[in-house]
Each structure stands twice: as C-alpha cells, then as structure tokens.
Amino acid sequence: MKIGELAKRTGLSAHTIRYYERIGLLPYADRDRSSQRDYDASILTWIEFLGHLKTTGMPIRDMLRYAALRERGVGTEAERCDMLKQQRERVRAHVAELQDCLLVLDTKIAGYAGEEQRMKDDDATPPQRRRKPPGTRAASAR
Question: Which residues contact 6 (CB under 8 A, 6 or more apart)?
Fold first, then answer.
C-alpha cells in the first residue's frame, strides 16, 4: 500500500510515517518501479502497537530500543518482555495517581452540589461577612 493509504488507515500523517521510518521505528518500505514506498499490510499491526506504547507515555528512545530488539529477533524476547513489564508498572502508577486526582475532583464537585442545595435552602442569599467599623477595638480581658 502507498504511504497515503497507510496514513489514512493508521491516522498518522505521511510526514510522521516517513519520520518513523527515518529514525528506525518503522522498517524501510520496499519501493515500487516509480520509487514510491510500497508498504505491506503487516505494518499495520506494528504501527498500532507503537500507538499503544506512545499512549502509555513510553519515550521514543525506549520505543526505538524495543524496535531494535524486535529487529534482532530471537534471543531478545526476555529483554523486550522486561521493557514492557517496566512500562506496565509506570502505567499502573500513573493510573493510581489519576484515580487519586479523580477522587479529589469528585469530592470538589460534590461540595459544589452541596453548596447549591444549601443556597436554595437559605433562600439563595449567601451569608455576608460583616466588618467592624474602623477605629473599633476589641475589648481586652484583664
């Protein structure tokens, strides 16, 4: 498939596909008679996997390392598996952090809902803070 078709099917721009190829995330595509890139459909699975790695926040340098190990093939499975396990732990930690943030947001939103109800119950008049007139001093206890 041509680069335009690959871009359409993956949601990546042709520029991004060329960039990924240039840095080594994608293997170089075969060329047709007119020297245009001609990608095999099997590249779609790899690009989808790279998209998942990117979504998890894996840095490009780690994706490049993974791609290089994948290219070397047999004998690199354990190292690739370790990389994915480490990334999984980073994702789990981030998910836990996001869940904590979600709880804070939910609590704050519930507080606003409670305030709205209190406002309705109090005739929609928020309590006024009163200031002491200037020059007034509090009596000291002796």
Answer: 12, 17, 39, 43, 44, 47
Q: Which residue in 68, 93, 11 sits closest to 44, CA to CA?
A: 11
* CA–CA gap between residue 1 and residue 3 (Å, rounded): 7
Q: Higher-confidence residue: 75 or 132? A: 75
CA 90 to chain centre: 12
Number of H helices, E strands in the chain: 5, 2
CB distance 67 to 76 below 8 Å: no
Q: CA 140 to CA 142: how far, in whole Å?
A: 6
Q: Are 41 and 1 in contact (CB under 8 A)?
A: yes
Q: What is the pLDDT of residues 58-117, one digit of tens each?
A: 999 999 999 999 999 999 999 999 999 999 999 999 999 999 999 999 999 988 887 666
Per DSSP, the three-state class of 30 is strand
Rg of the chain over Cα atoms, rounded to whole angstroms, equals: 29
